[in-house]
Specification:
- The chain crosses the membrane at residues 41-63.
- Keywords: Membrane, Transmembrane, Transmembrane helix.
- The protein has 64 residues and is mostly helical.
- The chain folds into two domains: 1-30; 33-64.
- 77% of the residues lie in helices and 0% in strands.
- The chain is built from two helices and no strands.
- The radius of gyration is 30 Å and the shape is rod-shaped.
Length: 64
């Protein structure tokens, strides 16, 4: 391999790497949201608490 072939291969490798970097910047991988796994549990707890609070306040108005 001559010096010119070596330099050409090196330039091609650097161009390929630069293209990969640009592609990664243009189309980043979405990051996983740590709260999304707990979202159904959070919604269930909020619903249970709000319904029980509403029923308790209605019961207090009706029975007292």
């Amino acid at each position: 391999m001559s010096h010119d072939e070596y330099v050409a291969a090196l330039v091609e490798r650097e161009i390929a790497y630069a293209n990969e970097v640009v592609a990664a910047q243009l189309h980043p991988e979405p990051e996983a949201d740590p709260m999304s796994a707990h979202l159904p549990l959070i919604v269930a707890v909020v619903l249970i608490v709000s319904v029980s609070t509403t029923l308790a306040s209605l019961g207090a108005v009706v029975f007292f």
